[in-house]
């Protein structure tokens, strides 16, 4: 008899006659930190969704043994009852409830509050709970008013009340800066020290390097290999995961800069923007970096008419213009590649082909009767982005990286000439990142200009001609591609 806490035997899942994972054999020891790695679309998240009850028993084939018993989950709630707790890639909170209500929802009997406790008392208890963990969050706020980082912190801190036996983390630090990852790691170390078994799916393996007991690699819908702690070193992980994909981590090209295509003067909003001025040239990649709450995310949305401006002027081709809604931005040749894949990026009721042609100018024929030319364009661009996807699949069945690439593909097929990317490589594996960087180069060669808003400073320094730092709603500084500032801390 082995001493595994979890054992998966010959797990396979097929959706719409498309194999998603095939014959997965995978086990976890009690108390281990097991890192699951591999390319987007390889099946990592699918396995996590099976273990958390998103894909119910009998939707897949094979057998799962957990704590010496066969696991037969029909809903995610069943997984919680078994003390299998999952932190998904995208936050899963009740958007129309307060933070306090979310914190105390669906807890085990040991830590649940009496259902007759008033809302006011629940908020008081939640505030005390957060302060105990040195986090100051107003638990009376509605979740839909909170940033992605705040939502993630609420989910992570709630783990103290959930008391998991098996903790599944699916790209948990995707929205976090390096400073916020430290907060996350402190929580994970707490549970590892308590003997909780942790299965972590992440491309940012360096962040977890000191926690890893074993790691496994998914490739092409199969689990290829598992290594022990003794096998782990950065060189072997790189060679196994990326092979010849990484001839250059940031394959940046230099193109001659043209005229000024976009300029802003003193942009401000009711909320986080106070005074933002900058300019963008044709053929330039301009990056924007700032911590959560700095105004970086708001600026990206304001330029595309998603967030309203209260003052300031935007110039396109040196002519003043008004962008009050996304359609105004579209008409001016702007494109916006969102980081909010599920909420605003994709239409879950449409297949992949319909999603790509959901922009009016992309649609070459009638919307519901696509032409051979449209199919040919679809396959041409999926090849460019290394996406081997059936056009009639549903976007909900894609990995996070595949969803991000599909959103990008939609805009690449448009006639836009100024591209706004918000966290373009969030939750994407290294080979896919390089695909996107190469697509940036293609855009530049075609005369486009690019704005990149990212919490990954290393990435910005690798791909951008200039980086503008946003702090407290204003521009705190700027560096060029070749500069190495002596004190970057002052800028952020």
Automatic annotation (TrEMBL):
* One Pfam match: ABC_tran
* Source organism superkingdom: Bacteria
UniProt-listed Gene3D superfamilies = P-loop containing nucleotide triphosphate hydrolases (3.40.50.300)
* GO terms for MF: ATP binding
Q: Which UniProt keywords apply?
A: ATP-binding, Nucleotide-binding
Q: Does the keyword Endoplasmic reticulum apply?
A: no
Cite the ABC transporter domain residue spans from the record. 6-245, 253-491
Q: Look up keyword Secreted and say if it applies.
A: no
Q: Which PROSITE patterns does the annotation name?
A: ABC_TRANSPORTER_2
The UniProt entry, under CDD domains, shows: ABC_Carb_Monos_II
Q: Which family does it belong to?
A: Belongs to the ABC transporter superfamily. AI-2 autoinducer porter (TC 3.A.1.2.8) family.
Name of the featured protein: Sugar ABC transporter ATP-binding protein
């Amino acid at each position: 008899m082995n001493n595994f806490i979890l054992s998966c035997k010959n797990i396979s899942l097929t959706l719409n006659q498309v194999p998603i994972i095939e014959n997965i054999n995978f086990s976890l020891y009690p108390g281990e930190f097991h890192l699951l790695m591999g390319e987007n679309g390889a099946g990592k998240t699918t396995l996590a969704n099976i273990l958390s009850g998103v894909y119910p028993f009998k939707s897949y084939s094979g057998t799962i043994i957990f704590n010496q018993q066969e696991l037969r989950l029909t809903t995610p709630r069943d997984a919680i009852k078994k003390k299998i707790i999952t932190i998904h890639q995208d936050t899963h909170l009740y958007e129309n409830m307060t933070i306090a209500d979310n914190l105390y929802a669906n807890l085990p009997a040991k830590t649940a509050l009496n259902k007759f406790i008033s809302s006011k008392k629940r908020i008081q208890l939640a505030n005390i709970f957060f302060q105990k963990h040195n986090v100051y969050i107003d638990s009376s706020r509605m979740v839909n008013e909170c940033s992605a980082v705040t939502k993630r912190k609420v989910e992570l801190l709630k783990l103290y009340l959930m008391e998991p036996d098996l903790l599944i983390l699916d790209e948990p630090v995707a929205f976090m800066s390096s400073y916020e990852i430290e907060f996350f790691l402190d929580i994970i170390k707490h549970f590892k020290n308590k003997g909780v078994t942790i299965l972590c799916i992440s491309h940012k393996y360096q962040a977890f390097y000191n926690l890893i007991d074993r790691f496994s690699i998914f490739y092409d819908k199969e689990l290829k290999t598992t290594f022990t702690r003794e096998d782990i070193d950065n060189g072997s992980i790189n060679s196994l995961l990326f092979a010849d994909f990484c001839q250059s981590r940031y394959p940046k090209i230099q193109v001659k800069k043209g005229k000024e295509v976009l300029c802003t003067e003193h942009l401000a909003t009711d909320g986080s923007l106070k005074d933002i001025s900058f300019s963008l040239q044709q053929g330039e990649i301009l990056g924007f970096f700032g911590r959560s709450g700095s105004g970086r995310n708001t600026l990206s949305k304001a330029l595309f008419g998603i967030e309203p401006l209260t003052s300031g002027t935007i110039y396109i081709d040196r002519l003043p213009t008004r962008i009050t809604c996304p359609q105004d931005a579209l008409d001016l040749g702007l494109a916006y590649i969102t980081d909010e894949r599920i909420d605003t990026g994709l239409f879950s009721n449409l297949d992949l082909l319909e999603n790509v042609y959901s922009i009016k100018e992309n649609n070459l024929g009638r919307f519901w009767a696509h032409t051979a030319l449209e199919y040919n364009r679809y396959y041409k661009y999926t090849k460019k982005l290394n996406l081997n996807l059936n056009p009639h699949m549903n976007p909900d069945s894609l990995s996070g990286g595949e969803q991000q690439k599909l959103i990008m593909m939609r805009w690449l097929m448009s006639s836009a000439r100024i591209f706004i990317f918000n966290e373009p490589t969030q939750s994407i594996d290294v080979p896919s990142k390089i695909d996107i960087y190469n697509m940036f180069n293609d855009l530049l060669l075609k005369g486009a200009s690019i704005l990149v808003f990212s919490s990954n400073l290393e990435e910005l320094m690798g791909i951008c001609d200039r980086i503008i730092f946003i702090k407290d709603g204003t521009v705190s500084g700027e560096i060029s591609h070749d500069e190495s500032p002596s004190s970057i801390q002052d800028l952020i």
